[in-house]
Amino acid sequence: MWWKLWRRHWQGLLIEMVAVFIGVSAAFALDSYREHQEKAERRQQVVELLLKDVIDAEKRLEETLKWVNESPMYGQFLEKLDAKQMPPLKFFALPDFNSTQIWITMLQSGGAAVIDVELLRDVENLIVMNDAWIAQNLQFNELNRTMLLPNLEQPPAHFYDPETAMLRPKYGWYPYYLRTSLQMTKQVQALLPTLKIKLEEQLQR
Question: TM spans, by residue (predicted)?
């Protein structure tokens, strides 16, 4: 009799243990599924935001390069300078609108953990290149304000050596920053198409 009672007791305990194990396993699986879903949703949001910004950046850079090529203050100035025609220096500001601060904030707040390593590297490369471009433009704008603006009424001889038609060293920064900014604009623009394709592929997964 006691054997039957003992067996029933252990059978009950075994059933309870199995039930607890199944319950814990199910809860763990559910939590893991929810975590996976949340990560997938977060990844989708990050990629969509990056893609939107890349598309916007492409449009802005296209407009910038069009302005550079057509502006007498930029492309035409450099052509005339190279031809020693002593073009007048104009006061204007280079673009500084392509800030990547929102990208940096997004990556630091967990975005870096949900996108592929290769994609993350491409995004970081673009951030570095873009921020260097903006820094160059801001330096030009500051020199424009502090060194050129107060002297705009000066005669051409103030800016150029009349005998050589060469820009005086004091203003050598002006064409340097124009050329450097143009080069970096093209470098940033060249990174965008590949990054856009990779982001679009991420959205299709």
Answer: 12-33
Residues whose CB is less than 8 angstroms from the CB of residue 71 and which lie 6 or more positions away in sequence, other chains included: 77
Token pair, residue 116, equals 């592929």
- Distance (Å, rounded) from C-alpha 97 to C-alpha 87? 28
Per residue in 49-95, pLDDT (tens digit) is 778 878 888 888 888 888 777 777 788 899 999 999 999 999 988 87
Give the integer Cα–Cα distance in Å for 52 and 54.
Answer: 5
Q: What is the pLDDT of residues 4-59, one digit of tens each?
A: 555 555 555 556 655 555 655 555 555 565 665 666 677 777 777 778 878 888 88
Domain with 98, as residue range(s), is 2-203
Q: What is the DSSP letter of 149?
A: G
Number of structural domains, the chain?
A: 1
